[in-house]
Amino acid sequence: MADLNSSAVNSFIEAVKNGSDEASSAFARTFDTTITIQPGNGGEFLSDVLSPKITDKGLAMLLMCKEQGIAVLIPDSTGLIPAWCDHPDATGKSKLSTFAQEWGMNLVPEDFFPEDFQAAVIQNLMQGVEQAQPAWESAYLELTISKPDGNSATAYMIWPLTEPSQLLSEEKPKADESTMFTAPPTFNNDKPNLIGNGVPEFDPFAGQDFGTQNFSNFDGKHRSVDDLPGFSRSLLKVKIPVAAVLARAPKSIKTILELGVGSVIQFDKSCDDFLDIEVGQSVTIATAEAVKVGDKFGFRIHSILLPEERFRKVEVRREGEYRVKHESPQIIGKAPIKSLDKH
Questions:
Q1: Residue 268, C-beta contacts closer than 8 angstroms, at least 6 positions apart
Q2: In the chain, at which end, N or C, are there fewer CB atoms within 10 A of the end residue's CB?
Q3: Per-residue confidence at 177, pLDDT binned at 50, 70, 90?
Q4: Sequence ranges of the domains in the chain
Q5: Closest CA to 144 of 53, 54, 40
Q6: How many CB atoms lie within 10 A of CB 43?
């Protein structure tokens, strides 16, 4: 595998040429504007040279390639970024994330295929790049964008970033004081837990009631992950499998054993129907249509189920209910017990 540095400029230029049509289509779907994309100048990244061109605000996309990042920057001065991108709702955030994913899959060489995608408007593109710390042999590539009015604009790709999570740090929300641990350190004076040289052990979860978080106002509409309690947001980093399912049909073991090359299995679903998108243990969350992204297979979300439609509430027994049902079991009969004492 090639190194993600200035030696990969030619690979990026070739990738942009091959994926420009798909990337232009993705832009049109997201922003309702028809454009064309061509690779421009590229080479070693020099902040002094690029800084005057990307000091204003704009849309920054972060494409993660293992531990390193690739930045795609579209300055606001290009006139291509609509106002709703400044403060997108849940649907807008999803559109930006999908847009970043499609550009990453089409404009980045296969050797550096991105694994994660983020996008947000930041107030100073150059500041974001500096915070993300470009590597010693970093590079850039200009993307020449032709607009509907006949004028052209320039976007930029910069790689690799050694601290990629800092690129969009300006858009990170401030911690919600209501979800932070505010309880002071508490110690058990009766039976202190001692560690090391007699230092009382501190319990960071002392005084916190994790069962009383208020979700009563959740209606499943236009909510973002920022509305979750602080301790719940860490769960969003857990990776779970995602499957696209066209159809299912129960078959007997005998039928399955008789399958061979050329066998046909019939389903009650058309091949043109939407796919079911499932996560985890076969939990359906959406329907989608199959699409081609470059030379890869993908799917485009058609409709999505709200969280309240995906899950059902678990019935909770009242305290003591289970024990009451099992106390004093009914004795059906007694078998005679013979004494083992010897007389």
A1: 247, 249
A2: C
A3: very low
A4: 6-171, 239-249+269-312
A5: 40
A6: 12
296-304 and 283-293 beta bridge pairing: antiparallel
Q: Taking each helix axis as running N to C, give the angle between helix 9-31 and helix 90-107, from 0 to 180 degrees, rounded to the nearest 10.
A: 150
CATH class of 6-171: alpha beta
pLDDT digit string, tens, across residues 62-80: 999 888 999 999 999 999 9
Q: Residue holding tokens 């690979």?
A: 11
List, as own/partner pairs, every contact residues 297-306 make where C-beta atoms lie below 8 angstroms and the sequence separation is at least 24, other chains included: 298/105, 299/244, 299/275, 301/98, 301/277, 302/274, 306/220, 306/221
- Sheet containing strand 36-44, edge to edge, reads 36-44, 134-146, 152-161, 68-75, 58-65, 116-122
How far apart CA 286 and CA 237 sit, in angstroms, is 20
Tell me the C-alpha distance between 161 and 167, whole Å: 9
The pair phi, psi for residue 210, each rounded to 5°, is -80, -5
CA dihedral of 262, 267, 271, 274, whole degrees rounded to 10: -140
Report whether 42 contacts 158 (CB < 8 A): no
What SS3 class is residue 264? Answer: coil
Q: Across the strands, what pairs with 223?
A: none
Provide φ and ψ at 18, rounded to 5°.
-75, -30
Per-residue pLDDT band for 316 (boundaries 50, 70, 90) equals low
CATH architecture of 239-249+269-312: Roll (2.30)
pLDDT in tens, 201-246: 444 444 444 444 444 444 444 456 666 666 676 777 778 888 888 8
Q: How far is CA 175 from CA 124, 224, 259, 263, in A?
A: 22, 14, 57, 58
Tokens of 238: 């857990």
- Amino acid of residue 340: L
